Amino acid sequence: MPHDDDTSEAGRLRNVLGQGRWFGSLPQDLQQRILSGSRVRSFARGEVIALEGAPASALSAVLDGEVKLVRQARQGHESLLWIAETGSWFGEYAVLTGEKILVTAIAKTPTRLLLLPKTELDRIVKDEPLHFRHFAMLAIGRISNYLKAYIHATSLHPEARLRGQLFVLSQMKIDELGARAPVELPYSQAELASLIGVTRQTVNQLLQTLVAKGLVEARFKHVRVLAPPEMLVDL
Asked: Strand (E) positions, the chain?
């Protein structure tokens, strides 16, 4: 992050990131190391932020906007995995393991990110090895949700897949960003269709079923989960 006298900017960044449970739980000295070692960068809508298969580059946090995390399939087809919102972090796997980037990150909207380069993260951990545990917790905290998402993605029934994905996405937003029901999810019907592997028309029909049951509200490019997420699916 640029070193200047704009302390209000540093405070704003701390406030935005502090809304997320991971950053907000970090020791003050580690928060400061992350902020001072990072840079802020803006991306235009549709711009690629990180490319699947590329070397690890940075741990990223969304300051403004939304970021799509997708897997690249054959003939340029994209399979949506998740949409990162303000306060969300992504890219932890590659920077922590040194492996290549697993998913492509694309700015869904004009986006502003905080980028902590891998070299700086490595320097932080070298100076204080105990800090690695804090970075690892970012990844570990998502494992159960990723497993649940995989289980629901393999369900034979489209409605069960949709219910399961809405559950996982809502729970992730609650766990990571401190959201409360009703939970707003920034997913269009086309994006939900990509998540569960059906057509947009099928998603529309499935959503109407959930609307009739009072579980969700279907809005333009958004879904509002009205009930506590666990009511969507029996795990």
From this structure: 39-43, 48-50, 58-64, 67-72, 78-84, 89-90, 104-107, 111-117, 183-185, 216-219, 222-225
Taking domain 7-140, whether its CATH number is 2.60.120.10 is answered by yes
* 232: Cα separation from own chain's centroid: 21
Is the model's pLDDT at 3 over the cut of 50?
no
Place of tokens 């937003």: 173
Residues of the chain with CATH 1.10.10.10: 155-231
For residue 218, which phi and psi values (nearest 5 degrees)? -95, 115
Is the Cβ–Cβ distance between 160 and 197 less than 8 Å? Answer: no
CATH of domain 155-231: 1.10.10.10
pTM (whole model) above 0.70: yes
